[in-house]
Amino acid sequence: MKYYGGCDSGSTYTKCVIIDENGKMAANVTLRSRINSVLSAEDALNKAIAQVPELDSAKDLAYLVGTGYGRNKVPFADENISEISCHAMGVHAADPSVKAIIDIGGQDVKGISVDTDGTVRNFAMNDKCAAGTGRFFEAMARAFEMDLDEFSRLSLKAKNVIPITSQCTVFAESEVISLVGEGKPMDEIAAGIELSVAKRCFVMSKKAGAVSSIALTGGCAKNEGLKAAIEKVLNLKVIELPMDPQLMGALGAAEFARQKGMAGEK
User: Fold this and answer.
1) With CB atoms 3.0 to 4.6 Å apart as the test, which of 62, 117, 150, 216 could cross-link to 146 if both were Cys?
2) How far apart are the first and last CA of the chain?
3) Per-residue pLDDT tens for 143-187?
4) Confidence at residue 131, expressed as pLDDT on a 0 to 100 scale
5) 160 shares its domain with 250
6) What's the rounded Cα separation, in Å, for the pair 173 and 195?
7) pLDDT value at position 31?
8) Torsion angle (degrees, nearest 10) of CA 73, 124, 130, 40
9) Domain harbouring 191, CATH code
């Protein structure tokens, strides 16, 4: 049995997926990224390799693709492919029915339209401001003195919404701290935060060609409050992927590795 790897070296988390020649996932790892992208990728690869008894090191992989923010730093990678292409391929591998994606990463937000073969038809990217990204949600959770999981569920309890007017992460955090200090209901403030991010996803969803449904990828796809806000604001059904949405970039990289590796063997 041959194995193929994908390593998604993100700004916040580094993910690694190993699949076999049939496309079945054999290993997956998600680690907080270190300052050094090479060390982050090595850590993730080593932990993933340890989950596959037949493999001793990353050199034993038949093909390895690097993707993400630090894709050029992935050791032993045979090729580097953009995270936009890898998220599209990863979602296609997980659920071929999905045709539109919003990827909310640590530092940017992307809208991606997926073709029938898993390639990218169209995309839009917001990388000018951290508002609405993983970094933004981390800042908001800090302001609430909560972990991300607790914060992501908080808005679901809200009966009303307190709008957040600031678009900048720094100013939004100050605004939230002021509202908390005034004793405003925290669940209603959280609802305002989720709503503001959902509105920022509107243009991305249009560029992705979403008509009735959309899938979310990246760590923020686990944010229950954000999913509910997107369904309400964009009037789209958020499709639940059959596996961790944070792994989609690494899965897509591994699937590209499988396709390229097997094509090279013919």
Assistant:
1) 150
2) 16
3) 888 998 999 999 999 999 999 887 677 788 888 889 988 999 999
4) 63
5) no
6) 15
7) 97
8) -20
9) 3.30.420.40
- Is there a contact between 132 and 201 (Cβ–Cβ < 8 Å)? yes
83 with 201, same domain: the answer is no
The confidence score (pLDDT) of residue 235 equals 93
- Cβ atoms < 10 Å from Cβ of 126: 18
State whether 228 and 255 are in the same domain.
no
Same domain, 20 and 114: no
Three-class DSSP category at 165: coil
Domain span at residue 250? 3-90+246-265
Query: Is the Cβ–Cβ distance between 113 and 123 less than 8 Å?
Result: yes
pLDDT of 231 higher than 70: yes
Q: What is the DSSP string of 80-145?
A: E--HHHHHHHHHHHH-TT--EEEEE-SS-EEEEEE-TTS-EEEEEEE-S--TTSHHHHHHHHHHHT
- Helices 186-207 and 224-234 pack at an angle, to 10 degrees, of 60
Which pLDDT tens digit goes with each residue over 176-206?
A: 889 988 999 999 999 999 998 888 888 889 8
Question: What are the residue ranges of helices labelled H in the chain?
Answer: 37-49, 83-94, 134-144, 148-154, 169-181, 186-207, 224-234, 248-265
The total of structural domains in the chain comes to 2
Q: Are 7 and 248 in contact (CB under 8 A)?
A: no
103-133 confidence digits (pLDDT tens): 988 778 899 999 999 999 999 887 556 566 7
C-beta of residue 46 within 8 angstroms of C-beta of residue 29: no
